[in-house]
């Protein structure tokens, strides 16, 4: 049996006298409601409580906590298992190459995911599990191989393989997970809550990084956990995994998602029914149980493939790699300019952060990592590295503080001002550190690193949200159907996050050679130069929605 719109209209009961009397008064409310439809066909989400936004931000806290622990321990771990120096660049290049190739594919897949749990949360859960697996392998790889393999040479070889695999898996998943988290926020929040959510994300990112660096700086050898577990690395894994699991669980239960099938089919159907009969607003109909029961009866009476409004083929839901590349290449120019500016920002930020502790040890403290381990030069270098870790902790704290200040600065200077100031202050700060390498001035200027970090985590994604809101309003004014083939938020967030991997690839190929030739000082000056170039790009090329 095929259910047509005419037969459905005849099946509905006639409107009551009370409904006819209120028809005119509800017309404006319905029109406003119809104008609140998003490009997926769902209504604009309701306002979210602050507590829910904080719960949603806990994933960023856990992710950055794990990142900071990795930054503190991954080099000692790799050295302890005997990784050859010529394999260092391979470890840091595999993950960003994989992320750069696969992230847009996964972003597009999440846009079309029809899981009953939602579009983004299945991907976030899967990537979180991969992060835990990676941490388990790189922090416990040596102990695991000692338990399973008795021969010394094979044990060392497999320990190197397992540790490298763990580092690659962790970096891949930790970089990858940011895109689905941002898309999840955009899907379930109104525009005002998206702005608040991004600031909470930056705030908790800084707090997680600060606590992670402090965890790495503590001596766990004399604690109760050290006597219960085999090594300090296992203690660190236990604490880090516990914190991340708690944060991930809270995040996944923060805000419920509406499945894509419901957004694209049922809500469109309800809008069509309400628009035809003009009974009252959809919220009132659902509250009264009328449309809910009507839609249930219709589903029971008619097969989905025979319902013209609800039908949709699998070919339309899934994008092949070819169509995905076509979508990326057909992105509007302002999206591409935003990606380029994001690439400049992350190139500048990472070129400074990846070598900062080495810069403190070699340039600021005038030590040497190649001197004998009992020499004054080596001990001086080690002291510089420790002070550099405190500088990174200052960076994380200042990122949290600045993310809070952004909410007050935004109404005054707008997104363009925030974007420009972030790049400018970072470029000037790193330039001064490179020209005048002093301990106290360097630590003070580390606070400007946090300004850049907060800017990179908030402003570009805020612009993505602005672009989507503008596109949705324009298409609704033209009365276009935008939910079927339009580009989703997931692929745009993925394209933006891909710039982090591309920056890592560029730096992994080029900056390592420069450091070996000119020393660590070149990293700070190159960061300053790239940031100032990006500052000009942000000012003149990036488009801002008025």
From TrEMBL:
The keyword Transmembrane helix applies. SUPFAM superfamilies: MFS general substrate transporter (SSF103473). It holds the Pfam family MFS_2. It comes from the Eukaryota. InterPro entries: MFS_trans_sf. Its main location: membrane. It is found in: Membrane. The keyword Transmembrane helix applies. The chain crosses the membrane at residues 65-83, 89-110, 122-139, 159-177, 198-215, 235-252, 343-365, 385-405, 417-436, 442-465, 493-515, 521-545. Keywords: Membrane, Transmembrane, Transmembrane helix, Transport. This is Membrane-associated transporter protein.
